[in-house]
Write a structure and sequence with these properties.
about 325 residues; alpha/beta; five-stranded mixed β-sheet
Length: about 325
């Protein structure tokens, strides 16, 4: 009798064990973004949608727009595991992520968003970049590809390059590095304060991609806009906490990683299909003067850009093999 009871107990344990093993462990990640949903975050929105669908809701990405961290502290939050995923821009804290600022340099190339996506993803795989982000327990997941920045400003419309002298500029390092040689003054202003800063005369001009000029109101305040600056853009990756990524089950990790391509394709299609057209239409509707640089002016700007690129190599050569990473990136832009 005792033997039969023991056999029954063992059989029950096997059933319970098998049942438990078949139940998937739910994962819920917090994602730190900022401001509001916009073209800049559509790939993260799409990623959350795809991951949830592929796992029947067992893996959920909770997107928070400013509720988890300040945008300039997102990398720090990732490093301590305060949240599992975040977006940030490398020019917010160049010392924390010097390697990826290479893509912000003024390569003076007009490349498509799709190509910029490919370039960033290749740069993210470079050993120096992987090592750099590993200091923050961070793994680069995907870029937020942005077209070449252009300026929108207030006041008199620039007619020559010398007219930029004294203008207070809000923009990333590559553009600021070139424009400062014309006498522009780099001025720090948070993105969501740009409209107010332009209205109050704190800054004269701001460098953004089209979606940001629309989202942060600079196009509403602007009186003139450049059309062909081509002096770089911002690198704003989406990163994940490496420990959190490694702790995912095989199925959930596959759901996440296999959704990246589709999310980026959706992002590019949305940006090119909606945002660029809306931006161009708004410029015309508001009667904003459009400033197109001549070939001679462009050549002069590009010559100034050479010194910015060289300075980046020199400034970073003791931190990592900056010339090697620069050459790698330049080759990608030239393909």
């Amino acid at each position: 009798m005792l033997k039969k009871i023991n056999i029954a107990i063992m059989a029950s344990a096997v059933v319970i064990s098998s049942t438990t093993a078949s139940v998937a462990v739910a994962d819920e990640w917090n994602v730190s973004l900022w401001s509001k949903r916009r073209a800049f975050t559509e790939h993260v929105e799409k990623l959350a949608e795809l991951v949830s669908a592929k796992t029947n809701g067992e893996f959920k990405l909770n997107l928070s727009y400013g509720g988890l961290s300040k945008n300039k502290e997102n990398l720090d939050g990732i490093s301590i595991g305060a949240f599992e995923m975040a977006q940030f821009c490398s020019f917010y804290h160049k010392a924390k992520n010097p390697t990826i600022t290479v893509t912000e340099l003024p390569f003076a190339k007009d490349v498509s968003l799709a190509r910029l996506t490919e370039i960033s993803r290749e740069v993210y795989k470079h050993p120096a970049v992987v090592k750099d982000l590993a200091r923050w327990n961070a793994t680069l997941l995907m870029p937020s590809p942005l077209p070449q920045y252009n300026l929108i400003g207030v006041g008199d419309t620039p007619k020559s390059l010398s007219d930029f002298k004294g203008k207070r500029l809000r923009g990333p390092g590559g553009i600021a590095g070139v424009m400062s040689q014309l006498g522009a003054v780099k001025t720090g202003v948070a993105a969501n304060e740009v409209r107010q800063a332009l209205d109050a005369g704190v800054i004269d001009t701001v460098a953004f991609a089209q979606h940001a000029h629309l989202a942060f109101g600079s196009i509403q305040a602007g009186q003139w806009a450049t059309t062909n600056l081509n002096l770089g853009t911002a690198n704003c990756p989406v990163v994940v906490n490496t420990d959190a990524l490694n702790s995912l089950s095989k199925e959930h990790k596959e759901a996440l990683m296999s959704s990246i391509d589709e999310s980026l394709d959706y992002y590019v299609s949305n940006y090119e299909g909606k945002i660029v057209g809306k931006y161009d239409t708004t410029l015309k509707e508001k009667g904003i003067n459009q400033v197109t640089f001549t070939p001679e002016q462009t050549a002069e700007l590009n010559k100034m850009a050479e010194s910015v690129r060289a300075k980046w190599i020199t400034d970073n050569k003791k931190k990592f093999k900056s010339k090697e990473l620069y050459d790698f990136t330049e080759a990608l832009f030239n393909q």
